[in-house]
Specification:
The protein is an alpha+beta fold. It has a single domain, classed as Ubiquitin Conjugating Enzyme (Roll), CATH 3.10.110. The protein has two helices and six strands, in the order αββββββα. It has helices at 3-14, 108-120, and strands at 20-22, 26-32, 42-48, 62-64, 82-85, 88-94. The chain has a six-stranded antiparallel beta sheet with strand order 1-2-3-4-6-5, with helices on one face. The longest helix has 13 residues, at 108-120.
């Protein structure tokens, strides 16, 4: 396991999540959405850790089951740039970079706040 995965999993566990490794450098865990349109829905949430964490934020979230239609291509949040996931067809990948990562404490807790914000801003 890479140091990035180890650190990410350790911080997830400190937040009370039970993480599991998937193929392609992914870490997944069960997640209950606590805000917005999908409040109360239980999903699997995964992140690909193929970049050095915490120096860089993981790529955007991968959700199972699908929450929004896959739009591919570009576009803006909330409905643009939703792609097939490398994990499999039952997953979707939201391309949602954390643009201000370098201005944060670079923790999983902060990254999960970013995810909650994304979920909160879906009409």
């Amino acid at each position: 396991m890479s140091n990035a995965k180890t650190e990410f999993i350790s911080q997830l566990q400190a937040l009370g999540y039970t993480a599991r490794e998937l193929a392609h450098d992914f870490v997944a865990f069960d997640y209950e959405i606590t805000v917005g349109r999908f409040i109360g829905q239980k999903v699997e949430l995964a992140f690909q850790l193929n970049v050095p964490f915490p120096m860089n934020a993981p790529g955007g979230p991968h959700f199972k089951p699908l929450l929004l239609p896959k739009t591919g291509g570009g576009g803006q949040h909330p409905f643009g740039a939703i792609h097939d996931s490398a994990i499999g067809p039952e997953w979707e990948y939201w391309s949602r970079p954390f643009a201000r990562w370098n201005e944060t404490d670079k923790t999983v807790k902060t990254y999960m706040s970013h995810i909650r914000h994304l979920l909160h801003t879906i009409p």
